[in-house]
Amino acid sequence: MTLFDLSGKVALVTGATSGIGSRQAIALSNAGASVILVGRREDRLTDQCKTLRDQGRSALYIVADLCDESCWDDLVSGSLDAFGQVDILCNTAGVNLRQAAEDVTPDSWDQTQTLNLKAPFFLAQKLVPQMKARGWGRIINVASLQSERAFQNGIAYGASKGGVTQLTRAMAEAWSSDGINCNAIAPGFFPTELTQAVFEQPELTQKLADQTAIGRNGDLSDLDGTCIYLASRASDYVTGQVIYIDGGFTAK
């Protein structure tokens, strides 16, 4: 359907070397978008770009550590030089150090807030002017179950993801009148590098599955539909929202 067609659009996806970011790149590419994959591990980015190109997709990568603020301008300018525009920004890079409250240091706190909260805003801020010039853009942030709930050893991460929820609303208020919609997804439990410690514990994995209304944990493909929806014309009148993709975890 044309409502979900992303042909002619360019998507920049951070955290694209694995997990949710990698899956978003695949979904957006399958919907017709050209994709720019951003991450720290060049070997993975190379493999992912090759896979997409072998399928006839348009893809390139940029190696960047978003904890290093000095790379943000180069990332934006490199993306715009490559395709001339960025229509969709997926702020998916993130970190969860899983430290107890008494073990959090100023450095670990700053690392978490910079990657999870600061980088998403400033990358968006740098890309918004060229979106405004075309009167259309999409920003997709990644919130969390911890945007609303407190989890053990998650104080810094939870603070950052609570911030993402409000950041998403504030971005929508600032930019939606210019045609730039901003929303967030809040995934439940999916098998990614960030949740590896959880999925290595069979009893805990089953307990979390039982907590959902559907009765299972997520598969990364469960994210595809919402990603394409929020990136496309189908969500023209949806902004400032956080969509929980959690199998009903927060409904119980």
UniProtKB/TrEMBL annotation:
One of its GO terms (molecular function) is oxidoreductase activity, acting on the CH-OH group of donors, NAD or NADP as acceptor. Pfam families: adh_short_C2. It comes from the Bacteria. Belongs to the short-chain dehydrogenases/reductases (SDR) family. This is Gluconate 5-dehydrogenase. It comes from Leucothrix pacifica.
